[in-house]
Amino acid sequence: MHYLVCDRCGHHNNAQSPTLTFCEHCGHKLPRCFGAWQAQHPEQGIEDFWRTECITATEPPQTATNRAKHQRWPTWIAILVGAITLSAVVVLLALPIGQQAERLTGFSPDEIHFLSSDTSRWMAFCGNEGYFRVYIPKGDPQRIVNTASTEVGSIDVVMYQMEMPAQQHPNLVYMVAFSTYPPNFITNHVSTYRDLDALFEGAILSTIQGARAQLLSAYYSPLDDHPGRAIEAEISSNGSMLSARFYLINNTMFCLQVLTPAENYPNAAANFFFSSFEVLQAE
Length: 283
Known about the structure:
It contains five helices and 13 strands. By secondary structure, the protein is an alpha+beta fold.
């Protein structure tokens, strides 16, 4: 096993996954994480990182963490890269994400007038399937269906995307997507918190990779009693920010995304979009 030592508290973090970014013990961002190291050594890979930056041992070294002894911060972890294409099926390593992080909240549908004096600019949208309801700017979202090949067979990914006119709205794109796992997949394969973390990690990784974005933060974000994750990422190639929420309802994974110009980030419209989402039915 390979361990990266936190420069703040001295904790030995399991560095097997290249997505390790924050200390599992004190929440401090690790300045020598693989992502930062590879940016300076683009020609080298994870094994080079382990050899030059990490401690290799069969068991975690017993190092005292005195600086964090009296201060237990929520565990935060940023995950570098992903979608709802369900590549999570083949993800083997689960990552601890801060369980005490609060869900982002915005405006409820009853408070939509705070976003605009003209409420006709927003509408409730349920898609063709009627699985969910969410408020989006008034318009005609594009429906896209892609088929993803996974280890459990082909899975359809249904996406509804609303592109906004430039300079007329604080956000560029609103998107809702969902995909349903085969019957009994969740029951048979997601039996522990570790399995559940791996499932979400796969979805996050494929979303970030697809957007060619750099992950800034990832944390727990439940929807009522259902597990969820939230991420914030930066797409430096076009100067925009990507915000996304992932929710697992029964056998269905939902993903909401907002693309925002960096100068408009964050904004109330994006918060309202996320907060207005509710599931009507899910397989």
